[in-house]
């Protein structure tokens, strides 16, 4: 068994190397930076608890699987929407971020599972087989759902681009 100092150092190095990438993936899944931070934090807490048992080549897969499970289970159990008497003021979008916001809104229109497949397949650039294993579906389902998801994204983004002109 590795000494505790080595385990702490290995975990800290992994967090430093992969934390931002998991945060981007979490944001692409949920469309909310605060929720993305919560998802990543919960992912790393679970990862730390099992750090000694996880083997080196599977750490990324374990982290992605944990993040995905937390995202999908959270979407079923709680809604982050709140009813308010007045609409809060929003800060103006940063210059050049309109495309990113449009993509985030378009992704939000997909079902959580379909969004997860699109994000894992195209943002994380995972092979179809690995996405199928992570989500727990057949490879054909990943192919059909990502194709439908991308088609829906193209339609939403095209319609938005036409309405802006």
Automatic annotation (TrEMBL):
<keyword id="KW-0731">Sigma factor</keyword>
<dbReference type="GO" id="GO:0000428">
    <property type="term" value="C:DNA-directed RNA polymerase complex"/>
</dbReference>
<dbReference type="Pfam" id="PF04542">
    <property type="entry name" value="Sigma70_r2"/>
</dbReference>
<feature type="domain" description="RNA polymerase sigma factor 70 region 4 type 2">
    <location>
        <begin position="102"/>
        <end position="153"/>
    </location>
</feature>
<dbReference type="GO" id="GO:0003677">
    <property type="term" value="F:DNA binding"/>
</dbReference>
<dbReference type="InterPro" id="IPR036388">
    <property type="entry name" value="WH-like_DNA-bd_sf"/>
</dbReference>
<protein>
    <submittedName>
        <fullName>DNA-directed RNA polymerase sigma-70 factor</fullName>
    </submittedName>
</protein>
<dbReference type="GO" id="GO:0006352">
    <property type="term" value="P:DNA-templated transcription initiation"/>
</dbReference>
<comment type="similarity">
    <text>Belongs to the sigma-70 factor family. ECF subfamily.</text>
</comment>
<dbReference type="Pfam" id="PF08281">
    <property type="entry name" value="Sigma70_r4_2"/>
</dbReference>
<keyword id="KW-0805">Transcription regulation</keyword>
<dbReference type="InterPro" id="IPR014325">
    <property type="entry name" value="RNA_pol_sigma-E_actinobac"/>
</dbReference>
<dbReference type="InterPro" id="IPR013249">
    <property type="entry name" value="RNA_pol_sigma70_r4_t2"/>
</dbReference>
<dbReference type="InterPro" id="IPR007627">
    <property type="entry name" value="RNA_pol_sigma70_r2"/>
</dbReference>
<dbReference type="GO" id="GO:0016987">
    <property type="term" value="F:sigma factor activity"/>
</dbReference>
<dbReference type="InterPro" id="IPR014284">
    <property type="entry name" value="RNA_pol_sigma-70_dom"/>
</dbReference>
<keyword id="KW-0240">DNA-directed RNA polymerase</keyword>
<keyword id="KW-0804">Transcription</keyword>
<dbReference type="InterPro" id="IPR013325">
    <property type="entry name" value="RNA_pol_sigma_r2"/>
</dbReference>
<dbReference type="InterPro" id="IPR039425">
    <property type="entry name" value="RNA_pol_sigma-70-like"/>
</dbReference>
<feature type="domain" description="RNA polymerase sigma-70 region 2">
    <location>
        <begin position="19"/>
        <end position="80"/>
    </location>
</feature>
<dbReference type="InterPro" id="IPR013324">
    <property type="entry name" value="RNA_pol_sigma_r3/r4-like"/>
</dbReference>
<keyword id="KW-0238">DNA-binding</keyword>
